[in-house]
Amino acid sequence: METESSRIFVRGLPPTMSEADFKKHFGKYEVTDARLFPQRRIGYVGYKSPEDAKKAVKYFNRTFIRMSKIGVELARPIGEAPTRKQGQSSQHPLAMAKLPAHNANAEPVVANLKRKRATPEPEAKEKDPKLSEFLNAMQAPSKLRGTRGEEVDIAAQELDTKVVVPEADSDSEYENVPKKQKKEEGTTTTRPSHTVAASPTPEPVPQPEPAAANDEEFEGFEDEPAPPTDEVEEKVRSSQRLYLRNLSYATQEDDLRSAFAEFGNLEEVHVPIDPKTGTPKGFAYLHFTNADSALKALRDMDGKVFQGRLLHILPAAAKREDKLDDFALSKLPLKKQQAIKRKREAASATFNWNSLYMNADAVMSSVADRLGVSKAELLDPTSSDAAVKQAHAETHVIQETKSYFKQNGVDMDAFKRRERGDTAILVKNFPYETKASELKELFEQHGKVKRFLMPPSGTIAIVEFHHAPEARAAFASLAYRKIHTSVLFLEKAPKDLFQATAPLTDSTDRETTQAGLDAKASASELLQETGTEVAAGTTSTLFVRNLNFSTTTDRLTDVFRPLSGFLTARVKTKTDPKKPGQVLSMGFGFLEFASKQQAAAAITAMDGYSLDGHKLQLRASHKATDAAEERRKEDKAKKLAARGTKIIIKNLPFEATKKDVRALFAAYGQLRSVRVPKKFDKGARGFAFADFTTPKEAENAMDALRDTHLLGRRLVLDFAAEDAEDAEAEIEAMAKKAGSQLNKVALQKLTSGGRKKFRVGDDQDGLDEA
Fold first, then answer.
1. Backbone φ and ψ of 453, nearest 5°
2. Out of 268, 372, 485, 579, which residue is the most buried by the measure of CB atoms under 10 Å away?
3. What DSSP designation does 416 have?
4. Are 96 and 108 in contact (CB under 8 A)?
5. What pLDDT sits at residue 145?
6. CA distances in angstroms from 242 to 288, 290, 295, 300, 311, listed in the order given
7. What is the pLDDT, as a whole number, of residue 323?
8. What kind and span of H or E run contains 109?
9. What is the distance between the alpha carbons of residues 102 and 68, in angstroms, rounded to a whole number?
């Protein structure tokens, strides 16, 4: 909920201003709503954020539109009482209505004074009846209705007597009556012919406050939102869903999640998209996991300002997952029930064992197709290392898939994050013979596909939609659908899966993709060789200052990348104290070049260059800075060396032997030793150790086999603790381990005792076994 208003109130507008001109004039910032009342020369403008509203007030207040000077201020929410301005008279009708109880006796006096000022003396009326008639006609309608009912009645009676035409009059005289009546009706059309009861005392009429949101401003919701009734509460508790309308057409699902997250966990946020324009339709559905959270959100947010518009929240009907109810579902076979439940829960499931899971049959088919052999020849049934061969084939395909995804803008580190996105889907477990065009057509039936990536191996694919509702519809419809001889496994891709500079790639031809992959791989090898040569030489660092605070590292890198010998660029930042988690630029940075000559050429070429409105100042960096950089590199090298050469392999199948582990890891370096711990019955304990000769080989093995399966189990790899070389350190470690075991035994004795009862008057312990 917005603590500050994102709407502004404008007064003093030109009377001939149109709504289009009004919206265009205040369009300096993103406008979400514009309401103009030309008769009153006021208007309301809604912005997407309170910050934009504040900027608009500061920019437009006390400015001119044509010949009219306008006043701009933040609009107050519905129901908020207007603040009394300095210098406002205490005789204001609003002030009179708020007088304390002990001043009630003074009200008739003030009212009588007003009546005396507004009405002439009775003697003057009797002397000049035309003056009395003129004053009656010029009074406000409100006074004619309530405070002067008796005089209105008298005037109406006089009017009736004047309009009556005698029967003896001629036709010409009778025809003149309508003209006279029309003239008098101009001032007496609203006067009733019957007697109007007069109020004993005049009630103060409240004056409209311009900055307060009135009934006209909140169209469709005439009054301040009333608290939900029992019927509304019952609907919300039963469905746990809310229907939001009058939303901005730029509202996204993340905006609603952040606004309503304080009320409780949200199971689903659905913003319908117009398929023709690709923009939101202006309403949304929220599904809470708790009914109390939904009810609290309804009470607190209904009628509040959100992104410059006034929210209207209603209870939504319960969502129908399928056409079968629980009773009809129970009549189906058990296998069919499980399939329906699994598909129903697929859209909300966030847990997956392995994001890069690949069908083992598809992996072997892909490798056999490339080698030009059959799967039977690739996997010899008489061989004892068939599982290791399959693991090697899967590792090769996974490495190729990772390389392909990286080249197409996929952030591989995103797979380590738990947060899932709503627009990208991982498609897995389809057969190798499935064509990319066939798979893409399945997803295009549910919306416009933004990206479609399928590696040359043909074992996994990534589909990204333009809008989240389309991706959810495709996920719910295609999850666990049978395709050829297999079943589709779908998984929500991690959030921010693609980098900002990722191209919009559409891969539908495996041969073209493979050729491009080979070409790019060759280029990457050349870059690696160049990088090795540069690292071997001495680099030079430049200090750049007078940077614009809005200049980022990416922006600085793009400017200096064309220069010869450029390696890296970095803008120095610090933590923002007002916004935790964000950083602020410090106005300077560092540039690294391959040699001192290239750095000197960069100073000559770029010193004084204008970047984002600031002229850059370049000079050679101090030796202290270079020394600090060297220390950081040394520390990083020490950390890599401290990792050691021993790897612990967890989740190892119990059927795996020492020979299988050695055959699997020997392909990535020279092994010093392999150990598979056994139990007393000679069975494997489910983990093993592999010790390489160098840390680099151990790291390469971990990177390659991180997502590999052996006999159906995904291997979990980590660096193992090194054995202590000092005897005293070894003894200390053993003593610590023994102490922890003794503590566990003592804790078990305290917690595993039988039930006990206390006996009053027992001379011994007072505690016996139950």
1. -120, 125
2. 268
3. G
4. no
5. 52
6. 8, 12, 9, 13, 12
7. 59
8. helix 106-118
9. 45
Give the span between the Cα atoms of 766 and 760, in whole angstroms. Answer: 7
Give the integer Cα–Cα distance in Å for 549 and 83.
40
* Type of residue found at 178: P
Q: Which domains, and CATH codes, for the chain?
A: 7-74 (3.30.70.330), 229-315 (3.30.70.330), 351-494 (3.30.70.330), 540-621 (3.30.70.330), 637-740 (3.30.70.330)
What distance in Å separates the CA atoms of residue 386 and residue 379, rounded to the nearest whole number?
A: 6
pLDDT in tens, 690-726: 999 888 888 888 888 888 888 888 888 888 876 555 5
Q: What is the pLDDT of residues 74-105, one digit of tens each?
A: 988 776 655 555 445 444 444 444 444 444 44
Tokens representing residue 524 in the block: 């990457």
Cα(20)–Cα(502) distance, integer angstroms: 38
Query: What are the residues facing 713 on neighbouring strands?
Result: 710
Judge contact between 338 and 438, C-beta under 8 A.
Answer: no
Closest alpha carbon to 296 in 225, 252, 233, 231: 233
- Which residues make Cβ contacts (< 8 Å) with residue 140, sequence separation at least 6? none
Kindly provide the b/e burial profile for residues 133-151, where b requires at least 16 CB atoms within 10 angstroms of the residue's own CB. eebbeebeeebbbbbbbeb
> What does DSSP assign to residue 506?
B
Nearest partner of 398 among 718, 715, 720, judged by Cα: 715
- Count of CB atoms situated within 10 Å of the CB of 498: 24
* Contact call for residues 653 and 378 (beta carbons, < 8 A): no
Cα(441)–Cα(23) distance, integer angstroms: 43
- Token pair in block for residue 682: 């000679």
Q: Please tell me the total number of residues recorded for the chain in this structure.
A: 770
Under a CB-based contact definition with an 8 Å cutoff, are residues 486 and 422 in contact?
A: no
Q: What is the 3-state secondary structure (H, E, C) of 734-762?
A: HHHHHHHHHHHHHHHHHHCCCCEEECCCC
